[in-house]
Design brief:
The chain has about 280 residues and is mainly alpha-helical. It has a domain at about 20-30 and about 40-105: Tetratricopeptide repeat domain (Serine Threonine Protein Phosphatase 5, Tetratricopeptide repeat). It has 14 helices and no strands. Helix 4 runs parallel beside helix 6. It is elongated, with a radius of gyration of 20 Å.
Length: about 280
């Protein structure tokens, strides 16, 4: 019988690229492209949106901050400022303003999603799950919240529940790449390697497949013990030294998963697979 991965390494293995840099967040969790908060068509808001669109996140946050300060009771203004601050990497400031937004308007789904994303970036999946489930309770067909809840569940080791959440998202949008990628990774982390490889193989062959998708496929192959297959997929994005490092990592994880050969606590904290090579910005 295939053994699932130990619970402790999950936070290291799952969803590589967890760090929040600019608008780079977990698959399917960022602000939808082109979407901005409507601030009554105010010229200041248009300037801030233009700054965000050009990648000037700090400048956008500054513009939104001035507008929000002038409209302290406007929940949309506060949400716009919080989103801009989050995009600029100011997580603590964004969290404070998202909470202020919810005090003004408890039904603001964007503020709850923002808080959940911050909790994930801070490696606080239990707190994140509370926010995402509140969104799902208010809007059961919220694709981004279903995907996000799955990520939080995976990070605390509740893989089967995570997979149910991803499949609920895919029932709404079968071709959603973020949910498909996360489902495949979740299957690999729970020991369902063949299912994971089948899902991630299809995804990695599609036009527009990303390095993250390919490296998740490589991860599934490596965890299964198919080192040749892992190396073949990984070489699209990693050099030989990184591939060899990952092979050593996967061998160590497989030993941990065998009864009597160690436990999660015996694993060095810095043993992890090398993430995908980044090209460009």
């Amino acid at each position: 019988m295939t053994m699932p991965l130990p619970a402790k390494p999950l936070a290291i293995l799952a969803f590589l690229g967890l760090g929040l840099t600019g608008c780079d967040v977990l698959d399917g969790l960022g602000q939808p492209p082109g979407q901005s908060v409507n601030l009554d068509r105010n010229a200041v808001a248009r300037v801030a949106t233009a700054a965000q669109d050009s990648g000037e996140y700090a400048a956008a946050a500054g513009v939104y901050e001035k507008y929000a300060a002038a409209h302290p009771g406007d929940a949309a203004a506060q949400a716009g400022f919080a989103e801009a601050a989050l995009a600029a990497g100011e997580m603590d400031r964004a969290s404070e303003v998202f909470q202020k937004t919810l005090a003004l308007a408890p039904d603001r789904i964007d503020a709850r999603m923002g808080l959940g994303r911050i909790h994930l970036a801070k490696h606080q999946p239990n707190q994140a799950l509370v926010e995402f489930r509140a969104v799902i309770a208010a809007d059961p067909k919220n694709l981004r919240a279903l995907n996000a809840a799955g990520i939080a569940l995976d990070l605390i080791g509740r893989n089967r529940e995570a997979q149910q959440s991803y499949r609920a998202a895919l029932a709404l949008k079968p071709d959603d790449r973020a949910a498909r990628n996360n489902l495949g990774l979740s299957l690999a982390l729970s020991g369902a390697y063949d299912q994971a490889i089948a899902e991630l193989s299809k995804l990695s062959l599609e036009p527009g497949a990303t390095p993250r998708m390919r490296q998740n496929l490589a991860l599934a192959l490596g965890l299964k013990g198919d080192e040749a297959g892992m190396a073949r997929v990984a070489k699209a994005d990693l050099d030989d030294a990184a591939i060899a490092e990952n092979q050593r990592f996967f061998a160590a994880v497989r030993r941990l998963a065998r009864p009597g050969e160690g436990s999660a606590d015996s694993r060095p904290a810095d043993h992890r697979p090398t993430a995908e090579k980044r090209t460009g910005s």
